[in-house]
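Complex record, two chains
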Amino acid sequence: MVPVQILLGTHSLSTRKRRIGGGAAVLAAALAVGVGIPATAGAATGSVDLVAYSTPKPAFAALIAAFNATTAGKSVTFSQSFGPSGAQATAVVNGLPSDVLNFSLAPDMNKLVKAGIVSSKWSATPTEGMVTNSIVSFVVRKGNPKHITNWASLVKSGVQVITPNPFSSGSAKWNLMAAYGAQLNQGKTKAQATAYLTNLLKHTVAQPSSASTALQTFVSGEGDVLLDYEDDALYAQKKGEAVTIITPPQTILIQNPIAVSLKAVNPSAAKAFEAYLLSPAGQKIWGQQGYRPVLPKVAAQFKFPKPTTLFTIDSLGGWTKVNTVFFTPTTGVVATIEQGLGVSTASS
Amino acid sequence: MSPPPVAEAQRLSISTATLAGAGASPRRRRRSVGRVVGPGLAVTYLSLLVVLPLAALVGKAFSGGWGSFWSAVSAPEAVAALKLTLLSSLAVAAFNGVAGLVIAWVLVRDEFRGKALINAVIDLPFALPTIVAGLTLLTLYGPNSPFHLNVGNAKWGILFALAFVTLPFSVRSVQPVLAELDRETEEAAASLGASSGRVLWRIILPGLAPAMLAGAGLAFARAVGEYGSVVLISGNVPFKTEVASSWIFSLSQSDELGAAAAVSVVLVLVALLVLLGIGLLRRRFDIPESV
């Protein structure tokens, strides 16, 4: 018995050794590959990790192609990641490699300031840290069968509205603040504006998780009006969806921030790309893709509809304040409205 | 009937034990090494994939203390979403339990053209990305439905989507057991004058019950956490059609990770209780584990 046990012992030991040896080889190989990528990336080719929110994906395809055609950008390659703005910011905080960052709204950029990935002075640029503008528009069925013209017509009886869920979608926050600010800009009180939000949410039949799922839901036949980014609506129209875009008389100016990561692996290429996105040539491509350029001279070349009143998030107190007051889950103004509506549907 | 797996495992372990005691031979040694390394690997793997992430989740849920855990799971949105999710999942698991049995029955006992194809199609809900499943369901059974069947923006839509994604569990857990079921007992019962209903109730169902329960348990656990297929067709309106997974996503997007973890813990706990309950039920009726 004893010799057998010894034999078994040595046998299992050698097996284990071999396993460890194998593991070490795999690990070494993985390290070699891992080290290999940045090593080659730092050389002639130069790779930039772009992390952005979901809607500008087609715009970036055009912009990267144009950037690669310039002398500054001809040898730069890109690794691109698109997704919901908030989710992308969270992913970067948790280690997603990033050189150039583009989000739907400023609070997502501020998440990265907190994490030490973006400079606290990111908005101290000639365009205040923004790379594109847009507005909140109404998307309706082709020919506007329900005669939607302004905010009041969204809450007429029988009108069904779609706007994404404000707790998961940056787009929905822009939409609801456009609705709220539009009331204030028509001389209503804050209480009246909140009452309008309640009425609007009462007419809301679907709150998809993001702007893109909201568009899919609308295109599949749900609802009469979709509140959407103007650029996203223009893109849908370009793709041939049977929709009409209505510009509300009062609406909010959407401002999308950009920054280069403090931890960029390839800062010179990243900065060159950011500079191109903000250059007249880059801004013109943004404009062709449905975004409102942030450079006034370039914006003047495009004929974007002019709402009677265009207000900013800063006129409503800025994102930090608005986020806390309106969009804190379970206690914010919007959560309180939803709770009231939920109770009334439960009792009716 | 093949011997139940537990008995089979016991027989094997007894034989290896006797062999190991008997003397040296390469075959014996390999088996013994396997017995040492096997459980170690299994436990390590299980820890990495299941135990550690779940422990981290629970840790996150209670990171703000018991008070913030309670306020997260008792928030009106959370209660409404959890209630909707658990009731829908229960209804779908029960309904698919029966529907799965019928489908498995047809696939095992009947012969028809195209059977192999249908047999392969059953598993497709697993392969389809759930968001695609949601889009497809919305196109077919939404406002533009070619069949004029609109379940969009309604609780029915949730049941539809959950039934779709959980069907493979219900069919696949019953199918092999049904195929192994001893038909001679049925024939004997029938020849002794038992009606077909009586044969089903006294002979077939008792044999299938554990498999059906296991299938229902899996379907329930899957339905409780389902997100992609549900959000598009449900309309995702808080207090009406917002499921728990969607509320959790919203919380995570609003930087309320502790609250998101807390609501997730409730879902996991309920799923665990249901799976444990099913295990208990099987033991109580002295039903051997078959799946």
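Note: Chain B has 13 helices and no strands.
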